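Reviewer comment 2.1 asked that we show a complete input and output for one of the modelled complexes. We chose the magnesium ion case, as it is the one discussed in the main text.
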Amino acid sequence: MGYDCAMARWILHVDMDAFFASVEQLDRPELRGRPVIVGGLGRRGVVSTASYEARAFGVHSAMPTAKARKLCPHGVFLAPRFARYEEAAAATRAILSTFSPVVEPLSLDEAFVDLTGTERLHGPVERTAQEIHRRIRTETGLPCSVGLAPNKLLAKLASEVAKPGGVHIVHEEDVDGFLAPLPVGRLWGVGPQTARKLAERGVHTVGDLRGVDASLLHSWFGPAAGAQLWRMARGLDDSPVHSVRDAKSISQEVTYPEDLYGEEDIARELRQLAMAVATRLAEEALLATTVRIKIRWADFTTRTRQVRLPEPTDHPVLIADEAVALLRRGEIQAEVGVRLLGVGLAGLIAATFRPEHLFVPSQLGAALQQVRSRHGTQSLSLGFPGEGHPRREAGILNPGAKDDADAKMDERGRGRGGCGGVGQCDRVVRLPNSDHGVPSGQGLVLLSACG
Ligand SMILES: [Mg+2]
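Response of the prediction step:
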């Protein structure tokens, strides 16, 4: 990396305002000025984005749609149209890339741009920030907020302050004044738990945090988190902007000692591979935007297929689902065996921030990785309702599990949903609905391959 010490860093953060809802209001003028809520419309749906008109009723993202309907009965509730949002996001990225080659999309509606050293080309960075804001507004027709600051931490905070629809610039000399009044919870990685712990010790604002000794932070939060808090309180952050162009891909393929026959077996192997690549993705703190599969039949015919994901993810189950969906998109020749399978992830971006999720980021991925790192990569495999699975030991069921989809479970495993458990699985671990990040009603069971 290595930055020229003489050259001041300038990082810009763009955040589209109420992105999905704004796109709907752009495309359907009759919705402008009305509370628009985009999200899952089913019984267990979750709000993805609420327009500012809807936010006035207390509706916000990640809220159950049912609750949003109660708060805002006259709201316009819409299912997301990811392909359209991706198109709008691509238009924004194209504008950004005319100002700098280093653009790091964080999600469909956010990106960092490294403007360091662009003054000679585009003039003063402050003016460039205003120009980027103006061009996005006029060329896409969508509102956005822009933050400009000496690093990513501050740029992201600046765009939040700029919301909605503004530009906020933080100069090096203004950093302390800018940070001091902000609640500590606004800093990266300071979740409700850390914020509570700090509040109990009289630390409410970033200014308060700055007054706390490094050794005290160390004793409260341990060396790593303590040091990180100390740095953030001072607005220090030297993490680079990763352009997508830098990102490599992660893939894994296996040639089988005996050819695989049957969709079920092929799907199971694909899930194993998906899980392996998702683990590596998470280890490298990346998210994938594209999933690929490769199939080579016994006659050496080879096919690859790929799909662009609606949102970047490192979720092993979502990645496995996409891989299997790709498999099923093409015909499977029952009479010719499969000798090689591969799963690849591409369009990798840094997992610094998670996208505004339709599905809450899961703790499942982390839990799976823990088990696999302790018991080996073969210790867990994924199984899904309606798919026979010869190996079984521990299971995780879609919690609540009152839906028919859940109750069907594994036909061959004779598993049952509901409170009854998972048939032949020895152990059922239930996670709260928001924790596993799997679309509602899909049902999920994890089966151990060992033991
Ligand atoms: Mg946004």
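The chain is about 35% helix and 20% strand. We note this here for comparison with the apo prediction described in Section 3.2.
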